[in-house]
Write a structure and sequence with these properties.
alpha+beta; Immunoglobulin-like; 2 domains
Length: 129
């Protein structure tokens, strides 16, 4: 009788092991993450065309949900390294500057996307009201 009980326990343990291993493999493979791409761009002064350092730039869904926020480098460049594939807008809110318009950008999985220059009107600009 004791050997029958041991065989049942071994069979149950083997069954659990065989059922659990594929689950662990799926978790470890990382296949559950959405495919991503990246977005690069530059924030520039509209009047001079020079890059603007220290500008906070945000990428958001077309519905306005923020995906990521970065700060521009000394030359005005920025990068969003991991963005799920889809359609987005790039916006900035920097005291004293005004963006001409949000930028539209399409992100493809596994590919870098280059955004058009994010043109900002400086407070010293003679732009209209």
């Amino acid at each position: 009788m004791e050997t029958a009980a041991v065989k049942v326990r071994q069979g149950a343990a083997r069954f659990l092991l065989l059922a659990f291993v594929p689950f662990l493999a799926a978790c470890a493979s990382g296949n559950s993450a959405a495919p991503t791409g990246s977005v690069r761009g530059v924030a520039v002064d509209d009047a001079s065309g020079h890059g603007l350092p220290g500008i906070t730039v945000t990428i958001q869904t077309v519905a306005g949900k923020v995906v990521d926020t970065v700060v521009t480098d000394p030359d005005g460049s920025y990068e969003f390294p991991t963005v799920p594939a889809g359609q987005y807008e790039i916006v900035t809110y920097f005291k004293g500057f005004k963006a001409l318009a949000p930028l539209s950008v399409s992100v493809a999985a596994g590919s870098p996307s280059q955004a058009a220059p994010l043109r900002l009107i400086s407070p010293d600009s003679a732009a209209g009201p």
